[in-house]
Amino acid sequence: MTQQSVATSDKLDAAVLKVAGVVVLGAIMSILDVTVVSVALPTFQNEFDASYARVAWTMTGYTLALATVIPLSGWAADRFGTKRLYMVALALFTIGSGLCATADTIGELIGYRVLQGLGGGMLMPLGMTIMTRAAGPHRIGRLMAVLGIPMLLGPIGGPILGGWLIDTASWHWIFLINLPIGVVALIYAQVALPKDAPEPSESFDFVGMLMLSPGLALFLYGVSSLPEAGTFAEAKVWAPMLVGGALVVAFVLYSFKPRHPLLDLRLFSNRDLTIASVTLFVFIIAFMGAGLLFPSYFLQVRGESTLTAGLLMAPQGLGAMITMPIAGTLADRVPIGRTVPFALALIVAGFFSFTQVDPQTSYWLLGGSLFVMGLGMGGTMMPIMTSALRTLQAQEVARGSTLVNILQQIGGSVGAAVMSVILTNELNGSRLIPGAVDPSGKPVTEAGLAIASRQRPELLQQTPVDPSLIERGLDFAAKAFAHTFWVAFALVVLTFIPAALLSRRRAPAQLDDQQAEQLKTPVVIH
After folding, report:
1. What are the pLDDT digits (tens) for 440-460?
2. Nearest 5°: CA angle at 22, between 17 and 28?
3. What SS3 string covers 473-491?
4. Which residues form the Major facilitator superfamily (MFS) profile domain (predicted)?
């Protein structure tokens, strides 16, 4: 694609800010959507009478779709043009949002979320490409500061907005809210973005894509089916896991053959990139997986409204807002091997409180713990990802960024699936109430009834129940959450092992202009 002329000044002029407005609008939709849906999972359980592991697929399916299109976006931008493709991504995301609001079953909602993810996955990498070409690589730092706004506000505003919409209207509005924003963004993009000039690009690895994406989806589907099946012997558990695992292994073996593979695994010959990727992958499985459970604890065990649950999650975002810019500055001056372990220690310190939760744990303690965890998160993710890319050659940066982004999305998907499986299995171990069945004919457990009574107190008025039974159920449910948090806590502690191997040598201060220009697929937090 032809390079747009850029100003030589380091300041972002009006023309660049006009383009940046389009990108920020798209980023806000994409990032807010992830955090908004996180507080809605218990609502989906009630609305669709589905297990936690099942409704978690509304998140897992979305992130898998993101991982599918991230490598496609760089190739397609050159082939079809960034403006045209960005508007297609906006349209897909907006249409997917509208369809999500019409879902009558959990299966439909998951399918529409995948469609949303196909659009959302292209918004950030395409937006970064558009902004880089509009402003020039020498102003990458200022551009990232502009894009940092939705990244920082998303974890704070998303749960609060989602909770407010669910409490005052209905769950449908967490998706309908995207429709007017999407229409405005489409009109804005048509007016503000420069005209496309597509050109031939390198070949796209469709064979690799047909192996990796279905392979991951099948494997995670098998894992997520385990709580309902209760055993690995069920065909719906082992069959998709086996086929999915075989496809992923086949992709790994195949990926060393094409000149331009979907994921360039040859980059793992770079020690610094490998160590950073392993550290990030283990951390994201633990932190993102457990992150979905925090609002569920407030909703299901403590009986809070979705708005209150969103407000209770805000300290984590505030903590990240404080340390993320500081960590970005330090990453240019201090080797991450000397800073990241301290950030991880903050996360471990904050996380420990959640391994001890019960039905009466102090909100001051949990809020303070989330704030400390946020401080650690802000000093962990961005420094690891950006420092890994600094060690690559100029021609490797775009492929390395794609690799790290996809590992991040896969880690989030694995984390969501694994943690939901563990929690569901723990809750299924609760004592059955003799003779009690739900409307679908399934036996009712003490924990299940206690959680239902927290979310719908009118149930106890319709059918009087021994208060001690509800108390036992809540204690059991709290212990189920605590046991799941212990698994996530152990994984975060495990992250110290690869983190100890992170480089302690001083890295180059910044990407040079040629490397920055290669950065077509940015590292972003979803």
Report:
1. 667 777 777 777 777 676 666
2. 110
3. HHHHHHHHHHHHHHHHHHH
4. 19-507
Nearest to 20 by CA among 143, 196, 136, 121: 143
Q: What type of residue sits at position 496?
A: F
Contact 167, 306 (CB under 8 A): yes
Residue pair 376/340 in contact by the 8 Å Cβ criterion = no
164-172: long-range contacts, CB 8 A cutoff, minimum separation 24: 164/306, 164/307, 164/310, 165/36, 166/39, 166/40, 166/43, 166/306, 166/307, 167/305, 167/306, 167/307, 168/307, 171/40, 171/43, 171/44, 171/47, 172/101
Q: Tell me how far apart the alpha carbons of residues 114 and 103 are, in angstroms, rounded to a whole number.
A: 13
Percentage helix, strand, coil for the chain under 3-state DSSP, each rounded to 5: 75, 0, 20
For the chain, the C-alpha Rg in angstroms (whole number) is 23
CA–CA dist 95, 248 (Å, integer): 31
> What digits encode the pLDDT tens for the residues 372-383?
998 888 888 777
In this predicted structure, the answer to whether residue 517 has a pLDDT above a threshold of 70 is no
How far is Cα 185 from Cα 419, in angstroms, rounded to an integer?
Answer: 35
The Cα 459–Cα 491 span in angstroms is: 38
Residues near 233 by beta carbon (within 8 Å), at least 6 away in sequence: none
Task: Give the DSSP H or E segment for 273.
Answer: helix 271-291
pLDDT of residue 11: 61
Q: Which residues of 78-115 are buried (b: 16+ CB within 10 A; e: fewer)?
A: bbebbbbbbbbbbbbbbbbbebbbebeebeebbbbbbb
Three-class secondary structure of residue 292 per DSSP: coil
- DSSP H or E stretch at residue 445: strand 443-445
Q: Tokens 């790994």 correspond to what residue?
A: 252
* Nearest one of 120, 118, 145, 117 to 131, comparing CA atoms: 145
The alpha-helical segments, DSSP class H, found in 136-234 are: 140-168, 173-176, 178-192, 206-229
Question: C-alpha 2: how far from its chain's center?
Answer: 33
C-alpha of 324 from chain center: 17
Whether pLDDT at 88 is above 60: yes
Residue 477 CA to its chain's centroid (Å): 25
Q: Which residues pair with 445 in a beta bridge?
A: 432
